[in-house]
């Protein structure tokens, strides 16, 4: 039986809805109703605390009388802890049921205090009812911050036009027309303006800048270098916005999961904001929360760029310079992956497997049960920046493993951390932890093998084989006027510039970037991923060199290659593997021999067939020329015949008419064919 009901209020409109609900319950059960208001003493105004307290008591009495009638009893309590005061009053008054609203109590957005309703429900010994006191339509309505409806809605044509106008205005302000011209004296200033414009336009154009920074064949060198330093400039989310996204993803009050969350963010970017926090179990974590406006804005920009790509893809002027649809497709794929934090969680777990052979390297744990597409909860790495690692054998061994692990990521696993700058490397418990795997790269098997040969050729100072390795990496054949001798001469000059450098100054990243520049000069198109690999290699080696300046990057590469070769030989020595590989070799050799037998006619079936592609136009042109020559000769013959018969004294009249008619018809047909084929 319910004899005593208590309802808490701060006299806000939403809390009054909870009072009305409790009044109805007390009438239904014929129970006494206590209307409680808790006021923090520090919130009483000025020096006249007595007058303020008396006024508050009078206002509470009026509210109780208006909403609850004679059944209600007002009670005013002064306490700095509202939730604790409610729980203690319930015990003192022997309350059977306590009612609180889910909105209000004014300290809801304070991370450290938590919500009053949630704390009461956890600590009260009586039954607790939390009443939904939000205004009608406020909860879960489309467009509410943190709601999925707002994020998933497709951009309208009006929104795209408005965004297009904004983009045009920003680029006009920064002078886009002059930015991309090569050879100007003010190239660095123009490059900075281009970077500033992309930063102002938000995450989509920032990511586009990162992609363009890997294409030195498209943009001037100053622009490429400037785009590599793109930064996020955004206002941090408020605590209320963070709470809205968290609870939308967790489906429970955030205090059910976190004991506390630090108010100031560790980082705030255009896509997400990161806070330190502590779970209710005491584990220290880092929480990555997606900005509510990030997905709608990115989808709107991708829609706009998709329309541009569709138009530009059909223009020959664009096709000759760059594959615009392919770049926009790469941009769209990359951004949509970043918007889904589950991809980053999967990348962390995959990197954990890749780093398993290296006992000095690691990645944070991921709390998968708490992580969603817009919320990522990870272990906090409570260490120091890698540059501050204490001197000793652990530091030197970690440096060697860091560099060798990166060779392994790129050249063996085909999966690498694409942004390993020192800020993403932490030293903790004598280990280096790799953080922020939101940007990762993948390398296919063919590119991995060619890249390894390229590095080994450079290490062995074999210019001819280095040239072959680079041409093997190229997408397509070199141009018809390609000068291989000049190409090798440029490679030799680059190799000579590195030959006498001390180990601490050898940088693989700049090396790969210089190789890319040489290929651009000779119009040899290397994969754009090579630039990203070079940038990441450079960042990783910089960190390794700071940890151990005596580390030889090419010696580590050679050691890695020997280890991989030994591992492969060990695998091939396995009897089962040997049998499998021998069967594969037998089948392939049999197919080659069968093909040769068919080609020479020894075996039945289709023989050797040669299909010359790309000669259709040539064949047509030759046929057309032959036809016109034949018609022209016939017309000339008819004209000559007409002249001879017309001048002859005894020629029949019909002969002149026949030759003349034939000459007119053949000449007209020849002219018609020429006009029609233009």
Care to describe what's here?
There is one protein chain. With 678 residues, the protein is an alpha/beta fold. The protein has 25 helices and 16 strands. The strands form four sheets. It has a five-stranded parallel beta sheet, sandwiched between helices. Strands 6, 7, 8, 9 and 11 form a five-stranded antiparallel beta sheet that branches.
List the helices and strands and how they pair.
Blueprint: E1 4-8, H1 13-29, E2 32-39, H2 49-68, E3 72-78, H3 82-92, E4 97-101, H4 116-123, E5 127-131, H5 148-152, H6 157-174, H7 176-179, H8 187-201, H9 203-212, H10 221-227, H11 239-250, E6 258-261, E7 267-268, E8 272-279, E9 284-290, H12 294-312, H13 316-321, H14 324-339, H15 341-354, E10 361-362, E11 375-379, E12 384-385, H16 393-413, E13 415-417, E14 425-428, E15 431-434, E16 440-442, H17 445-459, H18 463-473, H19 484-499, H20 508-521, H21 529-547, H22 553-572, H23 575-600, H24 616-647, H25 653-677
In short:
This protein is α/β, with parallel strands linked by helices and 678 residues long.
What would you call the shape? elongated
Low-pLDDT runs: 104-110, 137-146
Compute the number of strand runs: 16
Strand portion: 5-15%
Radius of gyration: 38 Å
